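Exercise 7. Given the encoded structure of a 283-residue chain, write a plausible sequence.
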């Protein structure tokens, strides 16, 4: 009780105190409505019980938001909305990939709490569709984290190969404890290159058809990555930035390299956390 009084005295007169006062007033004046709201918020948050303490979260996009992403990918790749939507559906219905994620999650209690039993792809569904539409020979991702995006890109490359368009993925990652999901089952379609992404890009000699940047979350490092790979992009290469919601690095690169730029901001379905955004630069 003494601790409660001490806290009350500490915040008295602040905006937080006023806010809590009005919350108490509303709860007393409209108990049933507030109880229902509390129950709904609790249910929504329970979908991702450990998300707050983790570096990133997973969620589905709203139906409308996903349709916006589909339209943007269609524009960037020069494909129809219908074809792009088919690629989205293709990934969602990929039972082999879903089973792979489920198996890997089941063996890791921490990931079970974070991801649940079914992986949610977020805007990475757009990565898959770009890869399917572009039919790239070389894909590079800088910063692979647990390897969710790596697996999704590899699944697209596997599908492309079945249609006569082979390609290969290179995941550049400095932290050798990462890449949990991207195991040996994907070795035919890609590999992880350990080390600093900028140096790895400088050492890379093949033309790059699709580049996805998601490594160090600083503008300076991302700019270094663009400088390192600028001369290595193929004529119709597409560049995706997974941090375009909080900096203009890819937009600046697009302007300097005479590329068009579009931006997509995620809208999460039944999720409480502020979401991210994705930029695409293309010819």
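Solution.
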């Amino acid at each position: 009780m003494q601790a409660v009084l001490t806290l009350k005295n500490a915040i008295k007169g602040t905006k937080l105190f006023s806010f809590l006062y009005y919350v108490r007033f509303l709860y007393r004046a409209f108990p049933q409505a507030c109880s229902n709201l509390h129950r709904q918020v609790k249910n929504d948050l329970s979908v991702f019980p450990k998300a707050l303490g983790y570096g990133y979260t997973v969620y589905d996009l709203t139906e409308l938001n996903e349709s916006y992403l589909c339209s943007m990918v269609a524009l960037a790749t020069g494909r129809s909305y219908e074809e792009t939507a088919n690629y989205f559906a293709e990934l969602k219905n990929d039972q082999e990939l879903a089973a792979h994620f489920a198996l890997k999650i089941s063996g890791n209690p921490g990931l079970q709490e974070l991801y649940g039993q079914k992986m949610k792809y977020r805007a990475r569904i757009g990565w898959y569709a770009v890869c399917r539409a572009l039919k790239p020979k070389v894909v590079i991702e800088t910063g692979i984290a647990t390897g969710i995006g790596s697996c999704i890109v590899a699944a697209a490359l596997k599908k492309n190969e079945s249609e006569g368009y082979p390609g290969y993925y290179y995941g550049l990652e400095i932290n050798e404890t990462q890449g949990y999901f991207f195991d040996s089952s994907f070795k035919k379609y890609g590999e992880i290159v350990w080390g600093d992404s900028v140096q790895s890009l400088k050492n890379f000699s093949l033309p790059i058809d699709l580049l996805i940047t998601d490594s160090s979350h600083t503008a300076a490092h991302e700019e270094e990555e663009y400088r390192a790979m600028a001369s290595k992009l193929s004529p119709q290469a597409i560049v995706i930035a997974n941090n375009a919601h909080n900096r203009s690095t890819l937009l600046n690169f697009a302007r300097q390299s005479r590329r068009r730029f579009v931006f997509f901001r995620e809208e999460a379905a039944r999720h409480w956390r502020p979401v991210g955004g994705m930029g695409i630069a293309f010819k």
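Remark. The chain is about 50% helix and 15% strand. Students should compare their own answers with the one above.
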